[in-house]
């Protein structure tokens, strides 16, 4: 679980430190044509989900995450949680807010996936 939390914090800090990247990506995603950036992002997300699935599998083996949890779905939820933080911050035009909201967001993610001991 510590690895997932570290990944979450690193992702949030990256976005907060590079606020123009989410804006650039949203602009590219809004276009109907396939662009090299769209293809690159699809590949990046696919690889990141695979990495997350591996980390989730390790946490399942350690008994930190429920064994019955679907790793792919847990990876999607992880990414969706960060995306929500980014979208909310962009809408409010307060990208620095993402750092403040991240601990509570990860705590909610953890509550969804963690085993009950």
From TrEMBL:
Keywords assigned: Transcription, Transcription regulation
Record Gene3D superfamilies: Tetracycline Repressor, domain 2 (1.10.357.10)
Pfam families membership: TetR_C_13 (PF16925)
InterPro entries (UniProt xref): Tet_transcr_reg_TetR-rel_C_sf (IPR036271), TetR_C (IPR011075)
Keyword Lipoprotein recorded: no
Domain Tetracyclin repressor-like C-terminal: 34-102
Top-level taxon in the UniProt lineage: Bacteria
Protein known as: Phage baseplate assembly protein W
């Amino acid at each position: 679980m510590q690895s997932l939390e570290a990944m979450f914090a690193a992702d949030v800090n990256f976005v907060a430190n590079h606020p123009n990247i989410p804006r650039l990506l949203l602009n590219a995603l809004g276009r109907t044509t396939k662009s090299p950036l769209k293809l690159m992002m699809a590949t990046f997300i696919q690889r990141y989900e695979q990495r997350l699935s591996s980390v989730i599998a390790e946490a399942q083996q350690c008994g930190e995450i429920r064994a019955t949890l679907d790793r792919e779905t847990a990876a999607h939820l992880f990414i969706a949680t960060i995306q929500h933080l980014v979208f909310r911050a962009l809408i409010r035009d307060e990208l620095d807010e993402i750092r403040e909201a991240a601990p509570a967001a990860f705590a909610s993610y953890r509550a969804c996936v963690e085993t009950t001991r």
